[in-house]
Amino acid sequence: MALNDLTTQGASAQFDLIIEPGRSFRHYWRDLWQCRELFYFLSWRDILVRYKQTAIGVAWGILRPLLTMIVFTVIFGYLAKLPSEGVPYPILVIAAMLPWQFFSSSLTECSNSFITNANMLTKIYFPRLIVPASAVIVNLVDFLISFVILGAFMAWYRFVPGWRVLTLPVFLGMAFLASFGLGLWLATLNVKYRDFRYVVPFIAQFGLYISPVGFSSSVVPGKWRLLYSLNPMVGVIDGFRWAILGGDLQLYWPGFLLSSALTIAIFLLAVRYFRSTERKFADII
Amino acid sequence: MGNPIITVDRLGKKYLLSHQRREPYIALRDVMVEKAKDLGRYFVRPFSNTSSPDRGTALEEFWALRDVSFEVNPGDRVGIIGRNGAGKSTLLKILSRITEPTEGRVRLRGRVASLLEVGTGFHPELTGRENIFLNGAVLGMTKAEIRKKFDEIVDFAEVEKFLDTPVKRYSSGMFVRLAFAVAAHLEPEILVVDEVLAVGDAAFQRKCLGKMEDAASQEGRTVLFVSHNMAAIQTLCRRAIWLDGGTIALNRESAAVIEAYGKDLQRGNGGSCSTTLKGLDGDIDIEGIITKDEKGNSTCVFPYGTSFTVEIRFFARRPIHRPYFWVGIRGQGGNLFAANMLLDGVRPDVIEGKGTIRCAFRKLPLFPNQSYSVVLGGRREDGISLLFKSTEVTHFFVTGSAKDIGLKGELADSLVGDSGPVFVPYAWEFTDGEWITVNSI
Asked: What CATH superfamily is the domain B65-267?
């Protein structure tokens, strides 16, 4: 018993938590760090579950972008005969398709993540930021798998990327921030207003047409280009093409910087809004 | 002992109840309509306060907890009892940081692990092994800790053979065992447990209670335990807190609190103890299980020796021929007795649509000042396939003093609460041929 007393006392010396209304926990970010294993396990769960009981499993991660790419190549490349920046049209499309697919699936799953995990939110405490973050991570894995397609097409057309391909992680980071920021915002709104359930599929569908996925953004007239860059995915996709296609393709810097600034702003605002609502989640979900 | 490990100071939690909407969340449409109304009001009466009276009619304040203060010392086991809606779960949710209080303050000097439900975070598609890791992480264990305890957990749950089977193929008994096993191997300083033992069979319940007792007595953990099962509270907890309408009615040693709670239930006519139960395949749902006294009044408090009727209100979507039902009574120490159609051979020919089945125990031979639960099970005509698994569906309390039932010993009143739960009339004879009957009810 004496020993037990010692251990409890020892523990109490280091642990002291006060719960009060309106008090956000001082150690939120430290808590988040301490929950990294939970984060890891939740992502691991979603990855495991994703293709369980499917016949072709991971191949779905390749098949979906592949089929869309073929359709886009036929429609925009062969029927509409849009310019291809001097690279094979399939590669032009796939370089945009991969980040777009990542963005749209992340956004969809991220924005529903609190609702689908509602049961956990009302039964267990943990920094809730983990839930949408792990939804994005799962799609990141899918994204990496789908890179196989890009590799295959490049080998087929004997297309060798230049040094710029090394900058790809920067643009991937942008895509991550964009989908996580917007997704987190929508997920938080979704907890309170279920209307956003219907908004998200609309954004995902609509976005495919207003982002330069099936065509190069150079077809957009110069005077509209800056306005066009208000869409955060324009910056990301242009960046991907710039890094992968190389050659004499130029990045439209004002547009890219605008896209990036907007993405970062959305992300910061989303985190702020999320943090202010997080404490009430269990009561309103 | 030094400082209390939990200090709760004038804690309160307010909810806003809306009388129109059923969902807790708000549709954006409603907000816009509200705003539009406000705007309209502003044009009609520009100088009155716009966030005004008739909005208040839609929302009503409800204090789930109010002015609750108590302290718990390290190593204490404290039971929390009270009727449905008394604030027990709200209190646990605040202590486990799931929801935030509206007023007051809680100070925790130890890590809290809360078990408000078994199997939180379990995923049906994952195997037993995968779920152990996942659930462990959800409950706050590190990977290293889970690895260290893995074998112990599997042992406790008795699921070795099925470790690599997806849990969706588990029987519900196995599922609960596995889920509880993970939780039972947590090592926090404070363990908060809601009514999670109601699932699972009696033997496993005993095992779990034993595990929690060990956690407290040998490992020095603090346990906060909510249950409707007074027997379990009495076995596990030295002290109990009785919550009533969001405030503390009594906070003392558990026997005294349970007795007072029982008396109150009796006075207040017990309130409603009805519950529902879903059938396994959707053919039948139990819409209400109601316990009734001799006069047919719904109650969950019964004096010793009176008639006790369980009324099962069912809704059978399809005709079910010659089903078997089973109504068991469970108390301190496990199953006590049952009315079982598989044994007595009395069965309805067919049940269809809405209807009731009643089962009456004519003279309830149960000790006063203890609480008991009703277990309901059902099978199809073949006697094998389940309509629903046997589940603890409701609880009741037996009242009365020792003298009422013919126990005149000096210590009788203080002992009945701990005695074996079944009390059958009997007689003594001391070589003179004269039988002294105890209890003539």
From this structure: P-loop containing nucleotide triphosphate hydrolases (3.40.50.300)
